[in-house]
Every structure is written in C-alpha cells, then in structure tokens.
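Weekend entry, working from home. Most of the wet-lab plans are on hold until the incubator is repaired, so I used the time to fold the two sequences that have been sitting in the queue since the last round of cloning. Logging both here for the record. First:
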Amino acid sequence: MNHLSAIILLLAISLAAAIYFIRLAARARLQKKLQKAQQGDPQMQYEAAVLYYHGKAIKKDWPKAFEYMAAASANGHIKATNALAALYMAGHGTEKDETKALKCYKKTAQQNDFEGMINLAVMYRQALGTQQNDAQAFAWLKKAADGGSPLGQRMLAEFYYAGIGTEIDKQQGLKYYALAAAQKEPIAVKFLKYRDPRLQHHGPM
C-alpha cells in the first residue's frame, strides 16, 4: 500500500467512526427526550409526538403521536393543544372528532393564542363541530386582529368587505388590510398594491 492509499484508508476509517459516533449521540438524545416525555415534561411530550407523527429518527406511529400530543396538551402546552385539534380534525391516531377539535381551539383561543383564535373562527364560520355562527367567527378574528395577528387582520378585513358577522364596512376593511400589509401578510400586500376587485369580493374562508 502506497502512502496516498494509506491516507485515503485512514480518512475513510475516520469518517466511518465519526458517522458512527454521531448516530450514537443522536440515539442517546432521542432516548433522553423520550425518557423526559415519559416523565411528564410537556415540551418533550410535544417533541416526541412530532417525531412519531412524521417518522423522523423513529418509526412513524400516529396513535403514539396522538398519545404524546394529548399528554402535552393536558399539561398545558398550547402548541400541543392546537396540534391535537388538527389530529382530531384529520382523524390521525384517533377517531375524527370535530367537536373535540373545537374544544381544543377554544381552549387555546381563551389563552390569547392567535392560532387558536383564528382556527376557532374558521370552525364557527364553516360550522365544524358546532353550528355556524358568523358573529362568533367575527368576534374571534377581531380579537386576534386587534392583538396584532397579521393573518387575523387580513381575514377580518375580508369579513368587513363581505359583511360576515358584521355590517359591510370597507373603510374598516381597508384599515385592517393596511395593518396586515404593514406586517407583510402577502394577500394584504397584494390587495393594497393592486387594489384588485377580485380580492375585494372573493369569499372569505
């Protein structure tokens, strides 16, 4: 074996060893995360649920993902509660249940979470898990919009333009489009840039 071949072989061995130890470290981190999840750490329960749901670094298992997401939600993890609602809506890892999804979104909305407020508004608007209630949809969107959510502001603007849950008020609609555009919400930016009539009259949600 010449000198160059020896160097190449040494590099190959070093690379293989590095990959081996990286995998060992990743496996150790995963086991530590799962252990903390089993001990009741809500953040680790949420992260474990995401891993099981997507099948990253671990075998995909939707029922297990649902189990961990439900546990994290029960421990007060807001993102987990919103994700749990999505699992109920899709029927992934559990039976599809729009009523339970509504309950989850209502829980996070009442904690001033923008994602919860907006999804709750959608549920009321589309009669998912409840009877259609445009007034409630409008109220939750307005709370999100006035709290600073750019998506909430743009959707509220659409409600004002279409008169959903409120009287038609294009002046208020323009105000909320402007607020959303200031935060670079893409549809609001396009609306203000082009004032495209199609954007003014398309049906919200």
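Second, folded right after the first finished:
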Amino acid sequence: MFEVLVFVYENYWHGDACPELAQLGRKLSAAGFEADDISQALQWLDGLSIASHHTELIDISQSSPEHHTESAHSLRVYSVAEQDRLGAACLGFIRFLETAEVLSPHMREIVLDRAMAVATQPIDLDDLKIIVLMVYWSVGLEPDALVLDELCDDADRVAH
C-alpha cells in the first residue's frame, strides 16, 4: 500500500490536484499496482481526506503561542494500542518532529489516526515517514527542505 501512496504523492504534488478516488483507482490500476494494494490505499486516502478536512489545523511556524490550545507543559499520553502499533522508534520520530516545531498537535493527531488505520503492527519508521508526508500533502502544506529530506531519506521509495 505504501508504494501506492508514494506514487500518488509523486504524481499529484498537491492533494487538491488528485482525481476523485474512483478515477484515481483506474489510474493506479493502469500504472500496474495490485488491486488489493489499490483498494487499501484508496480506503486509507479516503480516511485521510476525512481526517484532514474535519480537523482544525494550526501552522505552528506562523502562529503565536497564545493561539495554541495546548500549553507548553501539555503532554500527549499514548494509549497502549498506539504504543503497540507505533513502537518506540515511531513515537520518538513523532516527538522529534514536534520538538522541531514542524508537526503541530493537530497534524500529529491526523498522523496517529492514519497510522492506526494501517494493518501492520508495529509500523516501520519508513512507513510512518510516508504517513507524515501524506498528511502534509493532504492539508496542502509542503514541509521545508530539511524536513522533506528527513521524510524522504529512503531513496528507493520517494524520488525527491
């Protein structure tokens, strides 16, 4: 499924340029992807669309701290299911992105929602990076160059 998501990201740079799911499914099939991978990816993308369009997003790089609903002393407590699904490496990476102020709390929750929608357990760190990249893509934000390098460090998956 993640290869399909990478293909979508590479071919439709902005989420709003992506065709409707039925048409996208036909394009993915024509590109040679397996029907099962296409079905999983389309279902995952539909959930991403719902999550990203029904969540208030705050660009933390351009907003002042008083606009955030979380205080500097807030702590996100992960459920046992989230801990099992993500593992220490993925949770550490999410924390790294938050500390670097490139992943807002709202975007983090979308990442967690989409990570929990993946069947594999635990999620591979490279797969989580694709999820983070797709969350940026779905909300129309492009990560800065250093973040993009960190998300796309696996040359076999994303050719940016």
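Plan for Monday: verify the second prediction. Helices lie at 2-11, 21-30, 35-53, 80-99, 105-116, 125-139, 145-151.
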